[in-house]
Amino acid sequence: MTTSPRIALIHALKHSIAPIEAAFAKAWPEARLMNLLDDSLSADLARDGGLNDAMTERFLVLGRYAAATGADAILFTCSAFGPCIEAVARAHAPMPVLRPNEAMIERAVTMGRRIGLLSTFAPTLASMPPEFPTSVQIVPKLAEGALAALDRGDRATHNRLIVEASHDLRDCDVVALAQFSIAATAPLVAEATGRPVVTTPDSAVEKLMKLLAARA
């Protein structure tokens, strides 16, 4: 493998692109990134109220397209689609295919037993807790209205609503930010809660670097 692997980034929210590109720029600027965005995925999940076979097939199509472009690894940045992403991982083994949360979860569970899970997208708080080991306690918290504010371009309200929601997580050992789109609020949440905060983009980039180095 070259020193500049091609990483396919697959997004269900346009807001996820900038945070993961920033994380790569900071930790692994040599990686060649490719962005695939289908922002109807999250809208259709919210409409349908759950994952189904049709949604899994859409993910498999995205995975096949990414692999066909010569990707060395695939990172999904959409946190509410775990089973769909697992299907892609099975289809393309042994290529690294990462769920957005897995690296962050691995880091968070080393930092405490009571983990606050902060999200702006309600389906994430249904799909993500089962990805944690049963040895930890998950305290889910939805920042109501924050994603709608971000969709309107009102980042100040988005950030304020996240900080306000995080106050309910001050008795946790660590706060996990469940989505790429809220990673930039990590310093604000850390200040508001007095707790360590882990984010999905930084954790994912670190894990991909290790996986691809091991395969080189």
Give a topology summary:
Layout: E1 6-11, H1 17-27, E2 32-37, H2 40-48, H3 53-68, E3 73-76, H4 82-92, E4 97-98, H5 102-108, E5 114-119, H6 122-127, E6 137-142, H7 146-151, H8 155-166, E7 174-177, H9 186-193, E8 197-199, H10 200-215
Parallel strand pairs: 1-2, 1-3, 3-4, 5-6, 5-7, 7-8
Helix pairs in contact: 1-10, 3-4, 5-10, 8-9
Structure description:
The chain has helices spanning 17-27, 40-48, 53-68, 82-92, 102-108, 122-127, 146-151, 155-166, 186-193, 200-215, and strands at residues 6-11, 32-37, 73-76, 97-98, 114-119, 137-142, 174-177, 197-199. Helix 6 (122-127) links the parallel strand 5 (114-119) and strand 6. 43% of the residues are buried. It has 10 helices and 8 strands. The mean pLDDT is 95. It has a 4-stranded parallel β-sheet, with helices on both faces. It has a 4-stranded parallel β-sheet with strand order 6-5-7-8, sandwiched between helices. The chain has 216 residues and is of the alpha/beta class.
Low-pLDDT windows of residues? none
- Specify the overall morphology: globular
Q: What is the spatial order of strands in the main beta sheet?
A: 2-1-3-4
Give helix and strand order, one letter per element, not per position: EHEHHEHEHEHEHHEHEH
Helix content percent band: 40-55%
Whole-number average pLDDT?
A: 95
Total strand segments: 8
Oligomer: single chain
What portion of the residues fall into strands of 2 or more residues? 15-25%
Question: Cα distance, first to last residue?
Answer: 5 Å
Largest sheet: 4 strands, parallel
